[in-house]
Design brief:
elongated, two-stranded parallel sheet, alpha/beta, 5-stranded mixed sheet
Length: 158
């Protein structure tokens, strides 16, 4: 089975969501199903059908998270020292050489990626271009809109 890289923060978020689903959402939906059953005829009971559908979504999400956590390779970037090299989990400060914009990205697992929060997937074009580069290097990214150049200003391991 292939191990999927994930940061400690990402694993903690998945564990928190799993705990919430199992301890809060599951009992809530079980109660909603019980109340809907008490109303009688289940064939035409919209509340019952909606609760059963929600239960299906919750159970699917629980299985999904369980699977992700069982296949996760949790990586603590702080254990690698500060070599200045871009690795999984590192936070990278960049300058876009086309327009001078300063950008900051953290390279994370696919499930953690959130571009609005500055977290990019390790499989994204920019992360692939940055991995193994060092402070002061210029990374060339083959983006859908063409090549872009980014100077690596700083690499941090948070």
């Amino acid at each position: 089975m292939n191990r999927v890289p994930i940061t400690i923060d990402g694993a903690d978020q998945l564990r928190d969501e799993l705990r919430r689903l199992k301890s809060v959402e599951r009992p809530r939906i079980a109660q909603a199903i019980a109340e809907a059953r008490a109303h009688g005829d289940l064939k035409e009971n919209a509340e019952y059908h909606a609760a059963k559908e929600e239960q299906g979504f919750i159970e699917a999400r629980i299985r999904d998270i369980d699977g992700k956590l069982s296949n996760a390779q949790i990586i603590d970037v702080t254990q690698f020292g500060s070599s200045g090299k871009v690795i999984f989990g590192a936070t990278v400060d960049l300058i876009d050489e086309d327009d001078g914009r300063e950008l900051t990205y953290r390279i994370v697992g696919e499930d953690e990626a959130d571009i609005a929060a500055g977290m990019i997937s390790v499989g994204s074009p920019i992360a692939r271009a940055l991995i193994s580069m060092e402070e002061g290097d210029v990374a060339i990214v083959n983006a859908p809109g063409g090549e872009k150049a980014f100077e690596i200003v700083a690499v941090r391991y948070l």
